[in-house]
Amino acid sequence: MKLHFQICRDFFFHFVIIITILINVFAPVTYKQTKKIDDFDLGYQVKKEATFGNGTDRLFYFMQVSDTHISKYVSTREKHFSTFCNDFARAFDPSFVIHSGDITDDKANKRGIFMNHPNEEEWETYANTLKQSGFYHQSNWMDIRGNHDASAIIGKYSDNNYYYTYSPWGQYLNSIGRPQVYNSMRHMIFGTYNFIAIDFTTYPQVSAPLGFFGFITKDILDDLEAILVDAEQNHQVNQTILIHHFPFSLLSSQAVKSSKGNSIKDLISKYRIIALLDGHLHSTKAEARILDGKVLDLSLGDMKKHKSFRICAFDEDIFSFIDTDIDHTDPIILITNPKDCRYLSPREPLEKIKYSQNIRALVFSPIGFDSTTIAKATCQIDGNTVSSNMTKISDVPLMYTAPWDPNRYAGETHDIAIHLMDKNGNIITSQSQSFSTTYHPKKIGKGIFEIIQHQNVSTSIIAWMTILYLFYGFGFVILPKILRLVLLKTKSYEKFDHKMNNFCERKAKWWKFPYHQFLSMIWKFGKIPNSIWFIFLWAVLSPLFIPFVLGPMIVHTWGAGFIWGVAIHHSVTFYPMIGFYFILYFLGMIFPALTVVSLPFVDRDLRNFSDFLRNPTAILSACGILAIDGWFIYLLVLGYGAAGLLLSVVFMWNSGILVFLIIYTIKSHSKKKVYEKLVN
């Protein structure tokens, strides 16, 4: 029973540390927009006059799709993309369509999950689908590379960089030097809208799982700043949108600055950027957050599996959007006024909502739906009917309006619902959302991937790598041995050992538990024999100079992944995913092993291996270590083949040594024998 308690106590202490670190590394973003928008500088001089009338003269809309992952091994993905282009995009007739990356899957083989290899056949499928649906032109299609489109490509001008051969925008970029930042100005009668695409991939881009983050460089920031300055000085730009594949939270090197000393956050804060449109996370729905209370960071779900796409609209320069999927056979309703109060931004002329004349909603019907079955549209606010028959003001796009008095809804948030009805009075489809005429934002709900929506995951990983190394590597491996040697040298070890044994066995108050447990574990680890201690010292120090990963990171091109960077093809790039594996390596391998291995040297109840086997907690702990080791090894095999497995000193060899050490130590040494060796 005592043994059971001690093992549980030790592992609970590690569990608390792990949870604390993960919460800090991947802390959910707090919603910074907690006060009314009108307390901010809106940046707009809005005339107090009627807006949102019965016309479409200040309206335009576009669409977004992401992560199609067209694969020659999985035919359904081509079908999904073709359905989107032909049955939805063509039917909705947007101003243009944005593809935010991971156009093709680029897998080396049918069973490959991580190993990438550019497939020209997949790019041909992409181009043919666009041509057949009428979107193979810069004017109505804007795309950008994702990590899959760039994986396993050595350089910018490599022959297998098929984006520049088959993409409509890639062909244009090929003629101007293949820049990583480019823009498209959309000139309307009522204003100009600037869409800036940023390719955050790098050269060479190694295969997954390491290539999960985007990379910011000085050249990218210089080009982005030049485009933003030009738009501000030479064009009357109404709104600006950034398009890239990686969410802002997954961009590494955010401390990099442009030649003028501006970071990516500085540029986003300084210039009138309303939204970042991206993908990459493959979520089932939109993942959204607001950066610094100003800029929307909107991650779209994938077309690959979840069949997601997005419809966006600027109505009176106010940005609205709705996410849906190609399984949606009924009409789609996008309410443009009043705007969903979860996505309010001070960079919009929000006062127009307060002085608006009409509720406005766009309706999009996919091919196969007979729009003549829509007899009328009705509108309700807070359950009360505002209009039982909204006015249809246009057919293309189909828009309904209803007069209203915004002043009646001043104060907190309200709920609006619009229903499309058939001639029998049955509801065909509905759309509802919350709004506020006085700019009270509503907190964005938690999404599946909110756990990684930290403002700078890369920096957090680096910080906690350092903290872990100092706390665990020095505190639990090096410091205990130094302390023991000092005590032996001063001949005060036996006296201090007696006091510490009593201290370790004493039950601590709950508020003293971390302090008590930390000192207890330091003392226990110091008793590990030198022969075993040197193995742990190797496990701690080896990641500094031994590769975590060594193998074909790009087809036919080998690389070595260290915690400080990946060396491949005459270049070294820091990949934050290695840092994440480093954290898991410490928490999941070294120190659970330390806890188990130290037991026979300090616990009087553990006499032999059979005692260990009879303890369920100890068995579960050992199985947990084996499971973590197996998962790391599995990822290596998927990404870098058998070579990546056999040549991984840190994962494969060190893990094997630690697992062997756990079994051998507990089986071969009783507490009595160990103490005899220590005393003698």
TrEMBL record:
The keyword ATP-binding applies. Pfam families: Ig_TMM62, Metallophos. The chain crosses the membrane at residues 12-31, 461-483, 531-554, 574-597, 618-637, 643-666. Residues 62-283 form the Calcineurin-like phosphoesterase domain. This is Helicase related. It comes from the Eukaryota. One of its GO terms (molecular function) is hydrolase activity. Keywords: ATP-binding, Helicase, Hydrolase, Membrane, Nucleotide-binding, Transmembrane, Transmembrane helix. Residues 329-438 form the TMEM62 Ig-like domain. The keyword ATP-binding applies. InterPro entries: Calcineurin-like_PHP, Ig_TMM62, Metallo-depent_PP-like.
